[in-house]
């Protein structure tokens, strides 16, 4: 931002001085942002205002109902205002500024009014009026010259973003929900677009960018700026959707002030109210809220998932308390087909989507679908304490359906956790930041990842690894061991029989227990032998007979192996175990090598084998650090003891 723009931003910020006392700092934006939008729109509309009013009167007199297309054309913009008032003359009657301001706002075209409604500005008009501040604040904004001749659309976008950034920083409790640190966005955009640098300079290119959780639109703006810096003649269309009304209003305002098409910013839930149904995009990026619950739209999403890949969620559904993978599937559904040029996308996740969910779970099946379709290009680990409202570790996932030939069937992991500097002043949970060198270094490392991974001499070799897509898959096998039993009737086993539920419902249970007591001390090492000894109990109904066998059977490592009618050994549920076998390895070879040397009678229950996928990022970059020598620790303890003795001696003097 230039010095002039900074002065302009500071001037608008000075309005906060008027609000101090009646508004909390975190509430300043509720007044300043919509008034900045209103003032800019007023300036932008001024050259055609008279023509629009004249045309409006003509259409009104002619009884035309749908004036919107004509008035937009007359204004030469995507919006207009049919109020006789403008920003200056609404102050003419000092006692009725609130009424005039509402009348002026009511004259805007529907899309613009919708933006102001989402700001909830009407409530602020009332609040300012009751505090006696409305006239002063509006007067302040009348002084600002925001004519397009003085402040271009591009400059206005920067100015507005500067205000949004400041207000977000002082609203730490909610900032992270809609405001991603600028340097994080810059790195994300670099990683998304860097492989396409040559393509982006092609004359006359048209590219569509989309963010399904666009917040204030920071990612869309950065991506647009990045491409336009490479190619001033590129046509960039940005699309977004946002659930929060206020941030939606900010994003849409930003588009209006930059001269973009605000209608491409949709309001609502991207899962249940897809604002861009049927659209396909070249690039997508998002920082969806971490761990967002999707219970409110559960029925809608499950109904769509039931359509399989004809819908957006055919790969699987994550657990109800984390919709991260729903955002990712939503974005994948909006990829262009490879034959139409394909797409690339980047999304910010916490660590959960890397490994949450066992084999066969929704999360694992989604990872499996992504990897088996070779869409995951790379994952970049970021430093912790990088975001405003959380200090947890975060990751960029980068996906594409048009991988470069050398990257096909491969996934790059880049460890960027050590690339940070400490901030001079913390902002909420944000205590670290990336500088320009970090962004450049990580971008280059990602672009050159394969060469770095194969070059042990490269200084970043330890930070980059490449894997086959199948390396993240595993077979979840169920290892069984035979059920071994001996049989005996004792006081303890009789007590178990007496408490068995089937026996409580058996009419002759007392007779049965009485007869069983006479057999106390009976024991057998085999089932057939014990069955003969139980003949005294007579013919029993199936539930009671089962209860008898359950009570009198004792687990014994040296006992008889129990079998089914076909002679196959029965498994002991208490000894059941699970093992994860690499996808590329034969499970029987694994059993022979890893299990049978310790438990020779084990076997795999093959129908229970499941395929799972997980990405244990930190495990791949773990570096073993040997513990300190005991002698060193011993010396340290002795030194501490000596110091404590010395201090105690000082106290007792």
UniProtKB/TrEMBL annotation:
Alphabetized CDD domains for the sequence: AdoMet_MTases
InterPro entries the UniProt entry points to: D12N6_MeTrfase_N, DNA_Adenine_Mtase, DNA_methylase_A-5, DNA_methylase_N6_adenine_CS, SAM-dependent_MTases_sf, T1MK-like_N_sf
Domain DNA methylase adenine-specific: 152-449
Record region (Disordered): 558-579
Pfam families noted in UniProt: HsdM_N (PF12161), N6_Mtase (PF02384)
All residue ranges annotated as the N6 adenine-specific DNA methyltransferase N-terminal domain in the record: 8-141
Catalytic activity annotation: a 2'-deoxyadenosine in DNA + S-adenosyl-L-methionine = an N(6)-methyl-2'-deoxyadenosine in DNA + S-adenosyl-L-homocysteine + H(+)
GO biological process, one term: DNA restriction-modification system
Gene Ontology MF, one: N-methyltransferase activity
UniProt keyword terms in alphabetical order: Methyltransferase, Restriction system, S-adenosyl-L-methionine, Transferase
EC number: 2.1.1.72
Annotated Basic and acidic residues bias: 562-579
Source superkingdom: Bacteria
PANTHER family associated with the record: SLR6095 PROTEIN (PTHR42933), TYPE I RESTRICTION ENZYME MJAVIII METHYLASE SUBUNIT (PTHR42933:SF3)
The family this protein is said to belong to: Belongs to the N(4)/N(6)-methyltransferase family.
Protein name: site-specific DNA-methyltransferase (adenine-specific)
């Amino acid at each position: 931002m230039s010095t002039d723009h900074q002065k302009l931003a500071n001037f608008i910020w000075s309005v906060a001085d008027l609000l101090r006392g009646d508004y909390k700092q975190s509430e300043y934006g509720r007044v300043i942002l919509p008034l900045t939008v209103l003032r800019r729109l007023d300036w932008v509309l001024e050259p055609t205002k008279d023509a629009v009013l004249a045309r409006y009167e003509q259409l009104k007199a002619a009884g035309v109902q749908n004036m919107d297309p004509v008035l937009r054309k007359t204004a030469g913009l995507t919006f207009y205002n049919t109020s006789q008032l403008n920003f200056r003359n609404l102050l003419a009657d000092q006692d009725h500024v609130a009424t005039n301001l509402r009348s002026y706002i009511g004259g805007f075209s529907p899309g613009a009014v919708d933006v102001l409604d989402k700001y909830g500005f009407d409530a602020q008009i009332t609040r300012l009026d009751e505090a006696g501040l409305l006239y002063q604040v509006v007067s302040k904004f009348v002084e600002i010259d925001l004519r397009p001749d003085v402040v271009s659309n591009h400059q206005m976008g920067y100015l507005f973003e500067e205000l949004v950034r400041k207000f977000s920083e002082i609203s730490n409790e909610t900032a992270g929900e809609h405001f991603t640190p600028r340097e994080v966005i810059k790195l994300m955009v670099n990683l998304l677009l860097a492989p396409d640098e040559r393509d982006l300079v092609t004359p006359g290119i048209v590219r569509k960018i989309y963010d399904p959780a666009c917040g204030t639109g920071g990612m869309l703006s950065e991506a647009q700026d990045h491409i336009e810096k490479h190619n001033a003649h590129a046509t960039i269309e940005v699309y977004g959707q946002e659930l929060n009304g206020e941030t939606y209003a900010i994003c849409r305002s930003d588009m209006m002030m930059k001269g973009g098409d605000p209608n491409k910013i949709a309001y609502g839930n991207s899962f249940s109210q897809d604002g861009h149904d049927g659209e396909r995009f070249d690039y997508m990026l998002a920082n969806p809220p971490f761990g967002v619950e999707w219970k409110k739209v559960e029925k809608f999403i499950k109904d769509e998932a039931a359509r399989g890949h004809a819908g957006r969620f055919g790969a699987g559904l994550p657990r109800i308390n984390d919709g991260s993978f729903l955002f990712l599937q939503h974005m994948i559904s909006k990829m262009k087909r490879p034959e139409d040029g394909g797409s690339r996308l980047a999304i910010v996740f916490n660590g959960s989507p890397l490994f949450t969910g066992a084999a066969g779970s929704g999360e694992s099946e989604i990872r499996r679908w992504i990897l088996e379709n070779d869409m995951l290009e790379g994952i970049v680990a970021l430093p912790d304490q990088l975001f405003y409202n959380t200090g947890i570790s975060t990751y960029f996932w980068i996906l594409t359906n048009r991988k470069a030939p050398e990257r096909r069937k491969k996934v790059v992991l880049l460890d960027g956790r050590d690339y940070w500097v400490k901030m001079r002043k913390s902002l909420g949970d944000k205590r670290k930041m990336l500088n320009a060198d970090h962004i450049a270094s990580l971008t280059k490392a990602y672009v050159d990842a394969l060469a770095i991974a194969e070059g042990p001499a490269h200084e970043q070799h330890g930070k980059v690894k490449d894997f086959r897509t199948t390396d993240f898959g595993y077979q979840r096998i169920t290892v069984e061991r035979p059920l071994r039993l001996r049989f005996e009737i004792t006081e303890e086993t009789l007590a178990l029989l007496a408490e068995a539920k089937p026996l409580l419902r058996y009419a002759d249970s007392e007779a049965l227990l009485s007869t069983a007591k006479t057999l106390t001390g009976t024991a057998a090492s085999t089932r057939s032998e014990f069955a003969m000894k139980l003949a005294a109990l007579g013919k029993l109904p199936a539930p009671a007979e089962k209860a008898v066998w359950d009570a009198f059977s004792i687990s014994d490592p040296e006992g008889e192996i129990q079998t089914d009618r076909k002679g196959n050994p029965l498994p002991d549920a208490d000894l059941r175990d699970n093992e994860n076998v690499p996808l590329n390895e034969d499970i029987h070879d694994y059993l022979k090598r890893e299990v049978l040397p310790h438990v020779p009678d084990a076997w795999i229950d093959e129908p229970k084998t499941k395929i799972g996928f997980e990405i244990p990022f930190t495990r791949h970059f773990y570096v073993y650090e040997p513990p300190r020598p005991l002698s060193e620790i011993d010396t340290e303890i002795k030194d501490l003891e000596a110091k404590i003795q010395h201090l105690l001696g000082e106290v007792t003097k």
